User: Which sequence fits this backbone?
């Protein structure tokens, strides 16, 4: 490519965009919608993962000791638990504290201890935290084998389901993203094909005169790139505003959900969407021009 | 300059366009390809600028087999050959000047050179005064002159014309032929496919007569004679 023809390429690109203004707008909108939906899915996946791991990491293992555990052994059991690989911390909850918690749930007017005949039937237990959510199960199994540990409770179902849902959302998102990307490529290809077809005469003459294929391709390539970039831009702007709007309301309604906030995530998405827009646009144009160059 | 060796062309539809054609055209020659519609004239020309490839046999242009060119070399071949069509194939949304300049822009010529050369060639084809007019406002003869100007603007050593006078009245056709002869005098090899009997007979130049895909005659000072 010679420098002096770069101007020509841009003029031709602009001419084509202006000439097919309606189709250009349609293609930009489709790219924007595709990328927007892609963005929504990405945000959903990121948030689902964040929420899932957030909830999972708060899940603890409760290791109940036998009621007849001698007081001097309790601390040894705690040490044994802390030696299990993957354990972050293990906090002793003495039976007295457990009773207090239980009493609080029943209400102040009841003297629970008295009702139980002065005997605390609760066991001591350890609240164990794992370093990672996927370690919870194996840790629980190891703790079960320690002497004086009566039973272990760790919300097996909740952990498993959450991780399952997170993985599922991720797969669904990926599948949707792939399908949308294919659709966007096809739509851009179609738009460029229209542009190519209305210029079929010009292209034929270029070929007869001896223009190189890349000389013919460049303006269409740029046009595709332009469609992709503008589409990505529209998608990013819509996502940014839309996401901030939704997050602001979600945080009011469900303040406990650890959602990812606008600025950081959307800024990370911008790069991805713009890159994808460019890939989609240029791929679409290359596909549609290819057939016209086979002479 | 151009050699056909036992060239056979069968289109995918099964039509035999050319059968076992052998011919040579030297540099600077002026050649008529004659014959009825469907005789293979257009195919003969298309094989030269490699719009089609021979099914069997070899087509050589400038000593090189066109079928053995690498894809990137094809544009270089086409720069050696100017092409003129019966239907002119001008760009309707560009002026005469722009149509001609287009052929230079496409080859990435410097704009200074374009500004100098285009008016000179328009002058040569007699359209200097029509430079800023759009093709649809020109007569058929004028449009063909634009097409010829575009074909020769990059000074190709070969000029190929497929029925250049097919859409023109006899006087205009004759003018176009004069222009092509003049281009030939400048050293350009000119090959014209035509069924314009009057012109062929009047000029008495080399004639290659095609019929049903075969070369029936090849005469140095030929006429357009209906084959027996």
Assistant:
């Amino acid at each position: 490519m010679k420098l002096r023809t770069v101007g020509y390429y841009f003029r031709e690109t602009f001419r084509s965009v202006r000439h097919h203004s309606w189709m250009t707008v349609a293609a930009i909108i489709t790219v924007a919608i595709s990328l927007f939906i892609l963005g929504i899915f990405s945000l959903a996946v990121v948030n689902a993962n964040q929420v899932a791991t957030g909830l999972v990491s708060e899940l603890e293992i409760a290791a109940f000791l036998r009621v007849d555990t001698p007081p001097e052994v309790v601390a040894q059991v705690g040490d044994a638990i802390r030696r299990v690989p993957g354990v972050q911390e293990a906090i002793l909850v003495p039976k007295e504290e457990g009773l207090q918690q239980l009493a609080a749930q029943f209400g102040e007017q009841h003297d629970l201890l008295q009702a139980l005949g002065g005997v605390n039937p609760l066991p001591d237990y350890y609240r164990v935290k794992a370093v990672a959510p996927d370690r919870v199960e194996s840790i629980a199994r190891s703790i079960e084998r320690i002497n004086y540990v009566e039973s272990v409770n760790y919300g097996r179902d909740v952990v498993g389901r959450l991780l399952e849902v997170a993985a599922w959302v991720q797969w669904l998102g990926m599948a949707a993203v792939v399908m949308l990307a294919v659709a966007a490529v096809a739509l851009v290809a179609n738009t460029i094909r229209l542009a190519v077809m209305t210029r079929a005469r010009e292209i034929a003459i270029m070929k007869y005169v001896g223009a190189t294929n890349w000389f013919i391709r460049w303006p269409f390539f740029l046009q595709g790139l332009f469609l992709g970039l503008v589409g990505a831009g529209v998608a990013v702007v819509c996502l940014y505003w839309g996401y901030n709007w939704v997050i602001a309301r979600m945080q009011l309604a469900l303040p406990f959900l650890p959602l990812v906030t606008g600025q950081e995530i959307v800024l990370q998405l911008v790069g991805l969407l713009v890159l994808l827009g460019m890939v989609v646009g240029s791929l679409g144009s290359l596909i549609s021009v290819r057939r016209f160059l086979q002479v | 300059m151009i050699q056909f060796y036992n060239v056979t062309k069968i289109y995918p539809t099964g039509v035999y366009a050319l059968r076992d054609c052998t011919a040579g055209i030297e540099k600077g020659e002026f050649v008529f390809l004659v014959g009825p519609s469907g005789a293979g004239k257009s195919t003969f020309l298309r094989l030269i600028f490699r719009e089609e490839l021979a099914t069997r046999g070899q087509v050589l242009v400038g000593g090189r087999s066109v079928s053995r060119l690498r894809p990137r070399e094809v544009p270089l071949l086409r720069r050696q050959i100017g092409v003129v069509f019966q239907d002119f194939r001008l760009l309707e949304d560009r002026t005469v000047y722009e149509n001609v300049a287009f052929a230079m822009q496409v080859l990435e010529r410097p704009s200074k050179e374009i500004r100098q050369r285009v008016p000179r060639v328009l002058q040569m084809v007699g359209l200097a005064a029509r430079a800023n007019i759009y093709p649809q406002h020109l007569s058929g003869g004028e449009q063909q002159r634009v097409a010829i100007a575009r074909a020769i603007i990059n000074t190709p050593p070969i000029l190929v014309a497929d029925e250049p006078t097919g859409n023109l009245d006899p006087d205009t056709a004759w003018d176009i032929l004069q222009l092509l002869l003049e281009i030939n005098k400048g050293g350009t090899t000119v090959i014209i496919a035509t069924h314009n009997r009057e012109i062929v007979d009047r000029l008495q130049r080399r004639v290659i007569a095609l019929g049903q895909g075969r070369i029936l005659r090849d005469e140095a000072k030929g006429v357009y004679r209906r084959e027996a």
Remarks:
- The CA atoms of residues 140 and 168 of chain B lie 6 Å apart.
- Chain B has two domains: 1-80+158-228, 89-155.
- Chain B has a mean pLDDT of 92.
- The domain at 1-80+158-228 of chain B is CATH 3.40.50.300 (Rossmann fold).
